[in-house]
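My hope is that you will study the record closing this message with an eye to the fold:
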Amino acid sequence: MSAIPVLETITAMREQADAWHARGEQIVLVPTMGALHEGHRALVAHARTLGQRVVASIFVNPTQFGPTEDFSRYPRTIEADLAALAATGADAAYLPSAEIMYPPGFSSRIDLTGPSEGLCGDVRPGHFSGVATVVTKLINQTRADVALFGEKDFQQLQVIRRVVRDLDIPVSIAGMPTIRESDGLALSSRNRYLNKVERDIAPRLHSILVESAAMLADGRMAAPLLSKGMAALEKAGFGPVQYLELRDIETFLPVIRVERPARLLTAAYLGTTRLIDNVAVLPKT
């Protein structure tokens, strides 16, 4: 029996949300797909500073996985997740089923351009449409005032911000810096796929990003430095490297030379595990 209230239907979730709102309490939503780690716990802890009530959703969303991706083997650890949420101080866990999220006859998806284009948008067709649709539904179902996301998937954060702005959804979207292991590896539920040799290599993803960002901050042309970074990743043992790109922090358009804040983003395979990461690139003054 979990020590945290578990809400499994839209009706139950909305009744609880309405009761909180009636007391003037703001709701912060932390959307997750479960398999919670220290990064998720940090998100929940930070959420407590943004509002009076914290709801963490757990739903492995099938519409954001491609046909050859890891939906069927994505780790599902509900009991451990609920214990972690209770220990971190979440006020409720929202666990809708696939049948609730996508009932018979469901036929609506959010169509995207803008920040969804390129990067993961190219190599994972339909991914961001699935993300945007499910996040919009979760915001509506939980009546969230704030939704909090980690910056590890920075493109996802930009997509959600644009969807909320474009569709006039009354919620504030907050981001939180990536939580890392002591060696720099970004925390991810998929890290458990790595074997020992791969785990030893994995931190190089971040260190190569940091090295590349330092050179880009000097204002040099990005293209040759990005090529050099791609080669470094491949030499370190990553492959295929799907992208290493520099994007403007506001427009999310590709950057030729850093003249204002930007983001360096990458996605690469290590064995059969796909890893993503990003770092800020600030122009030197």
User: Anything to note?
Assistant: Strands lie at 6-7, 27-32, 53-58, 92-94, 146-150, 172-176, 241-248, 262-270, 273-281. The radius of gyration is 19 Å.
